[in-house]
Design goal:
The complex is a heterodimer of chains A (about 325) and B (about 550). Chain A has about 325 residues and is α/β, with parallel strands linked by helices. Chain A has helices spanning about 45-50, 70, 75-100, 105-135, 145-150, 165-170, 180-185, 190-210, 225-240, 255-270, 280-290, 305-310, 315-320; strands spanning about 5-15, 20-30, 35, 60-65, 65-70, 150-155, 245, 275-280, 290-295, 300-305. In chain A, about 40% of the residues are buried. Chain A has 13 helices and 10 strands. A 3-stranded antiparallel beta sheet of chain B has the order 1-3-2. Chain B is globular and about 70 Å long. Chain B has about 550 residues and is mainly alpha-helical. Chain B folds into 3 domains: about 5-145 and about 390-540, ABC transporter involved in vitamin B12 uptake, BtuC; about 150-255, no CATH class; about 260-350. The chains are: A alpha/beta (about 325), B mainly alpha (about 550). At the A-B interface, α3, α5, α6, α7 and α8 of A face α3, α16, α17, α18 and α19 of B.
């Protein structure tokens, strides 16, 4: 077998008195398609939200590529710069005002108190962040950090950017675009526009791949349910991820399109992408999955190949009927 | 005061408020951050910039403020003041955003509204800071002492050259956009001439885009004007040429805007414009107060009813309803600008006086009359004393800022950065799932939007020549919001249109109010706020997208 890309270990999440996920434990192999099934309320979508960092777990651990999610979701450089800078500016301003006003030090020494204040302010931020990260109970929740690492998800109820066109939706996705930085936008326009052309080309290819070129300039809010599903899949693929979490990718998609989507996913799997799919359409799950994980009441009921699952007594009782 | 001067002060207001609204538009229109405290950053920009140009305070003179840097060389200038006000407003905007930005739309709005009121109260209460509740004044706008310009000096010629630069660049830029449309005039050829051949550098395969060509053409025109003025003294000729050029470009643009309009739409527009004029007649004409107010209200009511009736029952009218209002407004403004001022002299039989008035309004670039200036004797018009006053210079400067910031903002919102902002406005979770941190983008949007507010505040401080805390009431924020909703949230061009409509309304009503006796005038002016509130409701209800709607984004790549 190939390597494990995602390890879920004893994951727990409660909402008030309801235990949504209760000790789920499973692994996902690299380059495989894993189906996640179970009756309504079994905790599939909550598990998805936990894995993708949208919820903070109450217990347990997830490892992606051998690294703990909590490590991966530490504050980004930008965030540190903003908070540290703001703390520095605020404390520096207070220091400067204190030097000029109450302390009456005059202009030049006040510059020193200003600098001192700034140092203390940024230092305080860095210090409290370090203390916070070392506390066991502290939970990071920064889903975007996981997407940067190559793990992306789609949403059960499609969440398209409704005021933006299909093409724009796709062009938004690629990581690390130079033009997302204001300095580049203003001063390095040649670079930005060259990159933009490349991204546009890729987006056009993606439209062709998903056979939705005809809705290229349509606002995403006007698309049909099935088209939105395709758009979401395309947007995720534009990211060039390693692990793709699909939450009900074919719900509301017509049979021929479903067939096409499944072929697409299989081809992508063979190219090395890893998929984890929550789906209620048994035909899709059974045909597509290499491994199926069955969840019930917040925990893993069983796991196995489609053939094994189909004949498993417990699964039939709990879910397949 | 000639009508041209009224229009110029109107345009100064429009440019200040357009810049203020750019900031609001970046926050709300593009990023979805509803900032009810925008005026707070306007305040910071205004007061900060003034501290850089004020001399040290003098308690004996009942002025007290924290610091006056006006006497310090290099630091105590408007340029430094404006930059400092803008930067500080941006920084404070970012700091305010940090704790509040996690809040949902309406909570965010209320929180920042509170913060803006805190700023205002601090200015009012802390007497050592900005002179407390008393006005902060005693500074003058930049280069003010040089006006009215003396054309025979180098500096006078150079300043007129700057005015020429801005007007020429603006007109040429507009012409550059119009030149590809069909017209009975050879626009492309004309464009080649007015850009002094620079157009060849632009175009499809050129290295410059239209905006850059227009800016360069403006520079050439400005330098030419300066040289001509120093060598000869053709101020009248230059003024006429410059004014006629702007009128021509405006005419071409309007003709193109209403190109596909049929005859009946034109007639309907003209009819409604004339009807509006007629409806306002009781105000200047009637003697009794009752006829003045009631007559106008009844006539306006009839006009609006006729409009609504036509919208409901006539199909072609319904589809052209906004265009008709546009034509009507243009017709009305045209009559007000060109025809009404000459009716008086014509009625008295003074044809030369009427012609002179018309000439003055057409040649809006120059100011006529006054003691200082060059005097010409012109055939048919009699003697004209020409000078260039400060308001034209201010307008050129502010207009330049408005245009340049528009350009920068367009670059910003059309870029991948702007795309992320719009995505944040649509759905933050999607942005997060795609590996982008909405927080970072919202902070940047707040910083830049607030900095724009601060910049507008500095311009306002320069124009108003005195600051009182009452100028920075939350009302300003809501005026900005109104401007944004009139023009269309998420459309930078709409901010200019919205500001023009709002200040057009203000100008028109204050002119009308002048016909009322002083005791009633106050009430009329106060009543305007009621009307503005109603206008806000009507816009939100019937035109939620604004007049121009959202901008089109990212249809093609531009690679300049």
């Amino acid at each position: 077998m190939s390597e494990t890309i995602l390890e879920v270990d004893n994951l727990r999440k409660t909402f008030g008195g309801i235990v949504a996920v209760d000790g789920a434990t499973f692994d996902i192999e690299q380059g495989s398609i894993t189906g996640l099934i179970g009756p309504n309320g079994a905790g599939k979508t909550t598990t998805f939200n936990l894995i993708s960092g949208f919820y903070e777990p109450d217990g347990g651990e997830v490892r992606y590529d051998g690294q703990r999610l909590q490590e991966l979701m530490r504050p980004s450089r930008d965030e540190k710069v903003i908070w540290g800078g703001a703390a520095g500016i605020t404390a520096g301003a207070l220091g400067g005002i204190a030097g000029l006003g109450p302390l009456g030090l005059g202009a030049a020494p006040s510059l020193a108190t200003l600098a001192g204040g700034a140092a203390v302010g940024s230092g305080l931020y860095v210090g409290q962040e370090a203390v916070k990260q070392n506390r066991e109970s502290h939970k990071n929740s920064r889903p975007y950090m996981l997407a940067r690492e190559g793990m992306v998800r789609t949403f059960q109820i499609t969440r398209e950017l409704s005021e933006m066109t299909t093409l724009e939706n796709l062009m938004l996705a690629p990581q690390g675009q130079a033009g997302e930085n204001l300095v580049n936008t203003w001063l390095r326009r040649g670079k930005v526009s060259a990159e933009e052309s490349a991204i546009r080309e890729r987006a056009e290819e993606m439209l062709e791949l998903l056979e939705i070129e005809h809705i290229r300039d349509e606002e995403a809010g006007n698309l049909s349910g099935g088209q939105r599903k395709l758009l979401e899949l395309g947007r995720v693929l534009m990211l060039d991820p390693e692990l793709i979490l699909l939450d009900e990718p074919v719900a509301g998609v017509n049979p021929s399109l479903t067939r096409k989507l499944m072929d697409r996913i299989e081809v992508l799997r063979d190219e090395g992408y890893t998929f984890c799919i929550v789906e209620h359409d048994m035909e899709v799950i059974m045909n597509l999955s290499d491994t199926i994980i069955v969840m019930n009441e917040g925990a893993k009921l069983t796991e196995g190949s489609p053939e094994e699952i189909r004949n498993n007594e417990a699964v039939i009782e709990a879910y397949l009927g | 005061m000639a009508v041209a001067d009224v229009v110029i002060s109107f345009m100064v207001f429009v440019s200040i408020y357009a810049i203020l609204s750019y900031g609001m538009n970046l926050k709300y229109g593009h990023t979805g951050l509803l900032d009810f405290g925008h005026v707070g950053f306007y305040l910071i920009g205004a007061y900060t910039s003034v501290l850089f140009v004020l001399g040290p305070d003098d308690p004996g003179d009942f002025t007290a403020y924290v610091i006056g840097l006006g006497d310090v060389p290099f630091v105590g200038t408007w340029i430094v003041g404006i930059v400092a006000g803008t930067v500080l407003a941006g920084i404070v905007g970012g700091l305010v955003a940090l704790p509040t930005i996690r809040l949902r739309e309406d909570y965010l709005a209320i929180t920042v509204l509170g913060i803006s009121v805190i700023f205002q109260r601090i200015v009012q209460a802390e007497e050592w800071l900005f002179n407390g509740p008393d006005a902060l004044r005693g500074y003058s706008p930049p280069l003010k002492s040089l006006f009215p310009l003396e054309m025979n000096t180098m500096i006078g010629a150079a300043l007129f050259g700057i005015i020429t630069l801005v007007i020429w660049a603006a007109a040429t830029g507009l012409l550059g956009r119009e030149r590809n449309h069909e017209s009975r005039f050879p626009l492309a050829g004309l464009y080649a001439v007015t850009t002094f051949g620079l157009a060849r550098l632009g175009g499809e395969d050129g290295s410059l885009n239209d905006a850059q060509v227009a800016a360069l053409a403006g520079v050439v025109a400005g330098v030419l004007a300066t040289v001509l003025l120093t060598a000869l003294d053709p101020i009248l000729a230059l003024g006429v040429l410059l004014s006629l050029y702007t009128w021509f470009v405006a005419g071409v643009a309007i003709a193109h805007l209403y190109d596909g309009l049929g005859r009946r739409e034109w007639l309907a527009g003209i009819a409604f414009g004339t009807g509006f004029l007629v409806a306002l007649l009781p105000v200047p004409m009637a003697d009794s107060l009752a006829v003045k107010s009631l007559g106008t209200i009844v006539l306006l009511g009839a006009l609006v009813s006729a409009y609504l009736y036509a919208v409901r029952n006539v199909a072609w009218f319904d589809s052209a309803k906004i265009t008709v209002v546009g034509v009507a407004s243009l017709w009305f403004v045209g009559i007000w600008y060109f025809v009404l001022p000459i009716l008086g002299p014509l009625g008295n039989g003074y044809v030369p006086a009427a012609l002179a008035t018309l000439f003055r309004n057409v040649v809006w670039v120059l100011k006529f009359g006054g003691d200082v200036g060059t005097t010409y004797a012109v055939a048919f018009l009699g003697e004209l004393t020409i000078n260039v006053d400060y308001s034209r210079f201010i307008l050129a400067g502010f207009g330049l800022f408005m245009g340049a910031l528009y350009y920068v903002l367009e670059v910003t919102v059309q870029s991948p950065f702007g795309r992320v902002l719009r995505a944040v406005r649509n759905d933050e979770d999607v942005v997060m799932s795609l590996g982008k941190d909405p927080f970072v983008y919202k902070i940047q949007s707040m910083v830049i939007g607030s900095a724009l507010g601060g910049f507008a505040g500095a311009l306002w401080a320069m124009y108003a020549q005195g600051l009182v805390f009452t100028m920075f009431a939350p009302r300003i924020t809501f005026i900005t919001l109104l401007i944004m909703f009139i023009g269309g949230a998420g459309n930078n061009k709409g901010m200019i249109l919205g500001a023009a409509i709002y200040w057009g309304f203000q100008q028109a009503t204050s002119q009308l109010a002048a016909f009322f006796p002083p005791a009633v005038r106050v009430n009329v002016l106060a009543f305007r706020f009621v009307v503005i509130g109603l206008l806000f409701l009507v816009i939100l209800y019937y035109l939620p997208e604004g007049l121009l709607g959202r901008e089109e984004f990212g249809s093609e790549v531009s690679d300049e």
